[in-house]
């Protein structure tokens, strides 16, 4: 095939593709808040959520973030995005660090009280519930109450939930679900958690 034939075929294929994409974009006209769930064992769940925080802030939206589980208060995301978003770090660390179930439950409920307030307030256009899945997995929170608050949040409010092993009911309720695969992680090659990449 000559180069000219190849170019002509490419142009025709791209025209068909463009018609297809344009039709799909034209068909998607609804505007409403979406529930995004970012789960799986690979790296990139929380950082993806914080990318959406940056996007929403760029559009002048009010943003609330609740970080469950995390005990670090020295993260780059909080230092930077916390200047513009309402930011709460409510965790005492991973359960294998605290080793105290009663304390974990009390902490989880403290965090959930803040989250529930945001989920009832239409002024928050984006709410990030970072590592919420663990609180459901370990039954630190009442799953029905959490799902109910998510389902009945303000119509235009977006919510992003992160954490491994998202329960089936949460995935069912969500509009967008991404499962990030752990293909490789530098930690397993002996690389420590480093600022800018890991926190
Ligand atoms: P990130 O915050 O980097 O987007 P994440 O939210 O997808 O990561 P978490 O399970 O919340 O993943 O883990 C948070 C911390 O653990 C980060 O420092 C991250 O680099 C690290 N981490 C994430 N996935 C893995 C993995 N598969 N193996 C080892 N460490 C990981
Ligand atoms: Mg995370």
Describe the structure.
- Helices cover about 45% and strands about 15% of the residues.
- A 6-stranded parallel beta sheet has the order 3-2-4-5-1-6, sandwiched between helices.
- The chain is of the alpha/beta class and about 200 residues long.
- The protein has 2 domains: about 1-30; about 35-190, P-loop containing nucleotide triphosphate hydrolases (Rossmann fold), CATH 3.40.50.300.
- The protein binds adenosine-5'-triphosphate (ATP) and magnesium ion.
**CATH architecture label name of the largest domain:** 3-Layer(aba) Sandwich
Order of helices and strands: HEHEHEHHEHHEHE
Q: Structural class, judged by helices and strands?
A: alpha/beta
The number of helical elements comes to 8
Output the radius of gyration.
Answer: 20 Å
Report on the biggest sheet. Answer: 6 strands, parallel
Q: Which CATH class of the largest domain is shown?
A: Alpha Beta
Can you count the beta strands? 6
The number of domains is 2
CATH topology-level name of the largest domain: Rossmann fold
Poorly predicted runs are none
Question: Percent of residues in helical segments?
Answer: 40-55%
Indicate the proportion of strand residues: 5-15%
> What's the shape?
globular
Cofactors, ions, other ligands: adenosine-5'-triphosphate, magnesium ion
Could you tell me how far the N terminus lies from the C terminus, measured between alpha carbons in angstroms? 52 Å
Mean of the pLDDT scores? 93
């Amino acid at each position: 095939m000559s180069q000219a034939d190849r170019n002509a075929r490419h142009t025709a294929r791209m025209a068909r593709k463009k018609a297809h994409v344009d039709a799909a974009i034209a068909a998607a006209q609804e505007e409403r808040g979406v529930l995004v769930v970012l789960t799986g064992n690979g790296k990139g769940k929380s950082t993806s959520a914080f990318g959406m925080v940056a996007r929403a802030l760029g559009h002048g939206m009010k943003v609330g973030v609740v970080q469950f589980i995390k005990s670090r208060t020295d993260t780059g995301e909080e230092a930077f995005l916390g200047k513009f978003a309402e930011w709460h770090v409510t965790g005492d660390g991973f359960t294998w660090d605290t080793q105290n179930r009663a304390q974990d439950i009390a902490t989880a409920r403290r965090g959930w009280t803040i989250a529930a307030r945001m989920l009832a307030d239409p002024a928050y256009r984006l709410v990030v519930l970072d590592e919420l899945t663990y609180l459901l997995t370990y039954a630190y929170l009442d799953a029905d109450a959490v799902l109910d608050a998510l389902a009945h949040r303000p119509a235009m409010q977006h919510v992003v939930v992160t954490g491994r092993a998202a329960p089936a009911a949460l995935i069912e309720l969500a509009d967008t679900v991404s499962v990030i695969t752990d293909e490789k992680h530098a930690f397993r090659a002996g690389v420590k958690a480093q600022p800018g990449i890991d926190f």
